[in-house]
């Protein structure tokens, strides 16, 4: 893959899907013609050096992409690839969770006929409602990012751009834009769920009268930790925005990231060893297919929190280790000779 191929791919990331292939083919053809013309005019070989000059004159990928479409947008071309990726991931997770819940209810309830049709209708309505709400929240988050991250800091579409960046090896201190955007988006979604939708977290069943019975997961003990979760989430979002604006890790930002990872591990351990925050009491399960099935109740109660603890400990432990490794192996500045 030569520099032209990499350049065309970078432009394509910012183009609408339906016109992407045609525009990429047009740009590739134009670049090849420019390269041949310049080679003939200067008598130089059509090598990487000449490609760099052609790309320099052609312009930055983001600026070229904007020239092929409208410039008025809610979510611009610099963030749209990340927006599209996040929407796909969130929709896939919501669909998987909804299908699991539907299958669990059908298996436990043994619904058939009219009951099955009603269950499927309820499933469809809840899924559509969840997708619409999730999409709206994601759009709001990315619209805010679009306006709080100036193009000059995030991706310069007007200033100097060097095509040599396409061949540059990544620096260990460089901020991975996709990772930070994903962190900001999912942390914001966590804040929304924790503060607005905790009363909807639980199990849903159809009882004998075909009405929906909701069994909440969370106990009152959980809400003791909400202020700490909010504080850590806000610091995480602020750190992500700061890193996106400055583009590189510094010792101070790595220390903040390490502190967040250690605080998350401590919080998860406190939630694990402290008062129960997730429970399925026999009283709450009365009138559901789980009523009287104490073994299944205990299994669900344990499985509902243990995987969360393990995942959080592993993820934060790995991130903390990576942060420490990055601090230890950070290239030192060259010493100035007196």
Radius of gyration from the alpha-carbon trace, in angstroms: 26 Å
What is the terminal separation in angstroms? 45 Å
Q: Which of globular, elongated, flat, extended, rod-shaped describes the shape?
A: elongated
Tell me the number of strands.
Answer: 2
Count the helices. How many? 12
Largest sheet: 2 strands, antiparallel
Write a brief structural summary:
The chain is mainly alpha-helical and 338 residues long. Among the domains are: 1-72, no CATH class; 207-330, no CATH class. It contains 12 helices and 2 strands; from the N terminus they run ααααααααββαααα.
Write up this protein.
With 338 residues, the protein is mainly α. Among the domains are: 1-72, no CATH class; 207-330, no CATH class. Helix content is 65%, strand content 3%. The chain has twelve helices and two strands. It has helices spanning 3-12, 17-42, 48-58, 61-67, 80-109, 114-148, 151-154, 177-196, 226-246, 251-273, 294-303, 306-328; strands at 202-206, 212-216. The protein has a two-stranded antiparallel ribbon with strand order 1-2. The chain is elongated and about 85 Å long. It starts with a helix and ends in a 10-residue tail after the last helix.
Key attributes of the depicted protein:
65% helix, elongated, 338 residues, 12 helices, disordered C terminus, mainly alpha, two-stranded antiparallel ribbon, 3% strand
Task: Give the SSE layout.
Layout: H1 3-12, H2 17-42, H3 48-58, H4 61-67, H5 80-109, H6 114-148, H7 151-154, H8 177-196, E1 202-206, E2 212-216, H9 226-246, H10 251-273, H11 294-303, H12 306-328
């Amino acid at each position: 893959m030569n520099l032209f191929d990499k350049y065309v791919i970078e432009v394509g990331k910012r183009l609408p899907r339906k016109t992407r292939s045609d525009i990429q083919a047009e740009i590739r053809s134009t670049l090849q013609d420019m390269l041949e013309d310049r080679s003939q005019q200067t008598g130089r070989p059509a090598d990487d050096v000449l490609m760099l000059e052609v790309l320099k004159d052609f312009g930055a990928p983001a600026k070229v992409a904007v020239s092929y479409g409208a410039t008025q947008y809610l979510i611009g071309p610099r963030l749209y690839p990340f927006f599209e990726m996040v929407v796909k991931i969130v929709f896939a997770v919501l669909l998987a969770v909804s299908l699991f819940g539907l299958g669990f209810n059908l298996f436990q309830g043994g619904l058939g006929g009219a009951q099955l049709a009603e269950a499927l209708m309820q499933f469809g309505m809840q899924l559509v409602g969840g997708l619409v709400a999730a999409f709206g929240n994601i759009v709001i988050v990315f619209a805010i990012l679009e306006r709080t991250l100036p193009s000059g800091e995030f991706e310069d579409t007007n200033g100097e751009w060097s095509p040599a960046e396409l061949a540059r090896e990544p620096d260990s201190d460089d901020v991975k834009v996709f990772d930070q955007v994903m962190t900001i988006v999912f942390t914001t979604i966590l804040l929304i769920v924790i503060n607005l939708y905790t009363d909807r977290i639980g199990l849903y069943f159809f009882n004998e009268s075909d009405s929906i019975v909701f069994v909440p997961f969370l106990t009152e003990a959980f809400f003791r930790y909400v202020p700490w979760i909010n504080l850590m989430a806000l610091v995480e979002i602020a750190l992500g925005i700061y890193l996106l604006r400055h583009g590189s890790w510094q010792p101070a930002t790595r220390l903040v990231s390490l502190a967040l990872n250690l605080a998350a591990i401590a919080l998860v351990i406190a939630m694990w060893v402290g008062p129960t925050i997730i429970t399925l009491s026999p009283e709450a399960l009365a009138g559901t297919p789980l009523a009287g099935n104490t073994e299944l109740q205990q299994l669900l109660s344990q499985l509902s929190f243990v995987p969360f603890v393990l995942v959080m400990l592993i993820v934060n432990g790995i991130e903390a280790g990576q942060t420490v490794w990055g601090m230890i192996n950070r290239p030192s500045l060259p010493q100035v000779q007196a």
